[in-house]
């Protein structure tokens, strides 16, 4: 006799929860609108059937060349819009994957490695019939772009690195955290903590036009599936920490350009360091010229007063510089 009222109460509670959190974003960003249609490549790895999301944008007047864009750790393909438009305006076909574990791609419990991700991106290019491409990587995507270039130099026409992380070996000075320990930290994520981090780490001065980045990055924490998202974030943190590329810059054999916001002070695991230790590392004013010297015939382009994401913080200057390197 109490079944119907109980069901009614349950229904109302569910409706209220949905209403109370209208901005909740799924961990595969299902309710995030990307700038171009998203497709999926089936992937089988570590005994799991997964899928890798990507955008494939054709230019109006094709020049026969392709560029592939690799996003940073806290992002997906959605933040490349202005760069995509700049490339397609010049006739380039643009491929924008969401790496496995990120964006709209599967959030899988697997062993993450830059080698594995590089191979999956090569598989995507092969599937699309692309034999040669420019590779552009931002932040963590710069580490991946470097590994991809080292593995498949014959595929890379030119390597473009925008404020890549991994210019130094983090595990040489950042205390070790296991993936399980990092997972507990990730679970503490809130919209407030994300906004504070983005404000302090990514831009010299906050603008309201950056709020959409926070909305996407923060509101996944409201999802019932957030623990899975947090676990994957911990696993990919471990990948960055344990798999440096900085010792292999001298092995790069393709033309390379670094685009660097000089106010950047990114350190993976920065919160584990004292203020004194933080001051010793993550200084892109020092790291960028040092890295450019390690890479044979690399070119360094710098942006004064810019932090971690030049293509968003100083889009006009960045795109003008990028255009000259095409």
TrEMBL record:
Annotated ranges, domain AB hydrolase-1: 66-315
Keywords: Hydrolase, Signal
Keyword Zinc among record annotations: no
Region forming the signal peptide: 1-20
Any one GO molecular-function label of the UniProt entry: hydrolase activity
Transmembrane helix listed as a keyword: no
Stretches that traverse the bilayer: none
Protein name: Alpha/beta hydrolase
Organism: Mucilaginibacter gynuensis
């Amino acid at each position: 006799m109490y079944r119907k009222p109980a069901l009614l109460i349950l229904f109302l509670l569910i409706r209220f929860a949905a209403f109370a959190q209208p901005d909740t974003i799924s961990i595969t960003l299902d309710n995030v609108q990307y700038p171009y249609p998203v497709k999926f490549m089936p992937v089988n790895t570590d005994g799991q059937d997964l899928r890798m999301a990507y955008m494939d944008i054709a230019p109006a007047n094709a020049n026969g060349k392709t560029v592939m864009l690799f996003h940073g750790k806290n992002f997906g393909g959605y933040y490349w819009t202005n760069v995509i438009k700049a490339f397609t305006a010049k006739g380039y076909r643009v491929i924008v994957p969401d790496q496995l574990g990120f964006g709209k791609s599967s959030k899988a419990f697997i062993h993450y490695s830059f080698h594995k991700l590089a191979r999956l991106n090569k598989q995507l290019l092969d599937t699309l019939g692309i034999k040669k491409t420019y590779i552009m990587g931002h932040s963590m995507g710069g580490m991946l772009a470097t590994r991809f270039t080292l593995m498949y130099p014959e595929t890379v026409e030119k390597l473009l690195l925008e404020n890549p992380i991994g210019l130094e070996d983090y595990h040489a000075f950042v205390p070790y955290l296991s993936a399980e320990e990092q997972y507990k930290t990730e679970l503490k994520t809130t919209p407030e903590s994300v906004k504070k981090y983005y404000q302090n780490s990514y831009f010299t001065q906050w603008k309201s036009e950056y709020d959409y980045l926070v909305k996407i990055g923060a509101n996944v924490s409201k999802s019932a599936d957030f623990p899975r998202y947090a676990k994957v974030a911990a696993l990919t943190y471990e990948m960055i920490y344990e798999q440096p590329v900085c010792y292999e810059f001298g092995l790069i054999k393709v033309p390379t350009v670094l685009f660097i916001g000089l106010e950047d002070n990114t350190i993976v695991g920065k919160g584990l360091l004292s203020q004194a230790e933080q001051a010793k590392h993550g200084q892109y004013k020092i790291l960028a010229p040092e890295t450019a010297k390690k890479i044979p015939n690399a070119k360094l382009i710098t942006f004064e007063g810019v932090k971690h994401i030049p293509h968003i913080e100083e889009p006009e200057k960045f795109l003008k510089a990028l255009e000259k390197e095409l």
